[in-house]
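Q: Given only this backbone (415 positions), what sequence would you predict?
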């Protein structure tokens, strides 16, 4: 059971139970599907089917913006499904990626030959584009522009692997940085955020790069098993002849050194993340942006100097994820969380690592930027007797409560 993994973290047990009892509603609202058109309800159905990680936070956004972001996500999910489908002949795939943005205004276009798990968004693309065309023009312009840029970028990397760190940044820009830029433009278009947020590209690009690099670092083993390589050769060739060598136990020391260098690179984006989040005014937008960022920071802390990255999937505990979700609702709390995980990394920095000096500098800067007088919320002071009773109550109630919170659980499972 999930709460058993958090036995040594009483604040996580408290928050898991609180989450099950309805605390999730502080960051995730329940939608009124009955008020939606049939096609829009189908779009939200596809959203929940294709994204456990983002569906819940998207649905917590304010009304008009929520629909725009939902359609934005589904359009990019359809584009990504084309890019991932290895059964599509390369010339045809390149053509589809370059022209995908034009399909948004083609009411009949769909693709029915995909074998990917998310192929439904391609097979029923007319339903998605129907709702796209109902959006305000300002939203449509953003979605089409980002779709066009991303399609071209994906096509660029179809026939080449990520070599240099500059290419790593460029690849992450295409698949995630552009998402951050597009979202910022949607936030501003909704008038929930200031126009300057949508005009800036550097900060939202860093937001996307931080998330994407974290995923790439964490997913080494899964990508290797699927025959994919996203770690930059400029870094890994310092430590091995082939990227696959890191999965061999004899090469674990070199593998961890490479891992640490990539984590160091990803952490460089944290100051930009903090600056971006500090500019947000709307609570739902802040939650939407902050929760994935603190999750990424926690994930990097779990991966840093951790040899298990090369033999297993390193994930944060469900109780840990719930605690972060319920805590990251204001800037002071986000700073405190970032500070906490930065300190965890600092405590594990090996003195013999090639990137030691660099990560000490970066984490030192992050620590200074995130220093606050607000300790991260903890229930560690609760008495052992109280905690024992609480854990027993959680154990007895868990199965029943699980049936009442299926939608919110799906978000956590995707992390």
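A: Predicted residues:
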């Amino acid at each position: 059971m999930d709460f058993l993994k958090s036995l040594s973290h009483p604040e996580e047990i408290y928050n898991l139970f609180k989450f099950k009892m309805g605390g999730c509603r502080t960051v995730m609202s329940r939608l009124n599907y009955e008020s939606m058109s049939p096609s829009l309800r189908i779009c939200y159905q596809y959203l929940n089917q294709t994204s456990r990680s983002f569906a819940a936070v998207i649905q917590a956004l304010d009304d008009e913006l929520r629909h725009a972001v939902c359609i934005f996500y589904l359009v990019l999910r359809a584009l990504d499904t084309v890019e991932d489908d290895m059964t599509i002949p390369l010339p045809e795939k390149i053509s589809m990626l370059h022209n995908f943005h034009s399909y948004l205004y083609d009411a009949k276009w769909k693709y029915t030959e995909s074998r990917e798990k998310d192929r439904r968004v391609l097979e029923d693309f007319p339903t998605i584009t129907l709702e796209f065309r109902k959006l305000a023009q300002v939203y449509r312009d953003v979605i089409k522009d980002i779709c066009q840029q991303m399609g071209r970028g994906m096509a660029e990397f179809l026939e080449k692997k990520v070599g240099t760190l500059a290419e790593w940044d460029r690849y992450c820009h295409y698949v995630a940085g552009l998402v951050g830029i597009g979202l910022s433009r949607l936030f501003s278009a909704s008038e929930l955020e200031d126009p300057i947020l949508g005009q800036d590209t550097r900060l939202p690009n860093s937001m996307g790069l931080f998330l994407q690099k974290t995923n790439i670092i964490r997913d080494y083993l899964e990508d290797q098993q699927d025959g994919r390589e996203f770690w930059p050769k400029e870094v890994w060739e310092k430590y091995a002849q082939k990227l696959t060598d890191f999965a061999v136990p004899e090469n674990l020391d070199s593998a961890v050194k490479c891992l640490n260098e990539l984590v160091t690179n990803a952490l460089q984006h944290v100051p930009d993340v903090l600056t971006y989040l500090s500019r947000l005014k709307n609570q739902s937008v802040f939650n939407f942006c902050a929760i994935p960022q603190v999750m990424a920071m926690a994930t990097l802390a779990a991966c840093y100097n951790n040899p298990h990255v090369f033999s297993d999937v390193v994930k944060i505990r469900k109780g840990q994820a719930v605690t972060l979700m319920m805590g990251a609702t204001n800037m002071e709390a986000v700073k405190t969380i970032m500070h906490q995980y930065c300190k965890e990394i600092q405590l594990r920095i090996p003195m013999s690592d090639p990137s030691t000096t660099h990560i000490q500098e970066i984490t030192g800067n992050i620590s200074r930027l995130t220093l606050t007088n607000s300790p991260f919320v903890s229930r560690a002071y609760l008495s052992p007797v109280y905690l024992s009773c609480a854990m027993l109550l959680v154990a007895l109630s868990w199965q029943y409560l699980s049936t009442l919170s299926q939608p919110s659980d799906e978000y956590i499972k995707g992390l």
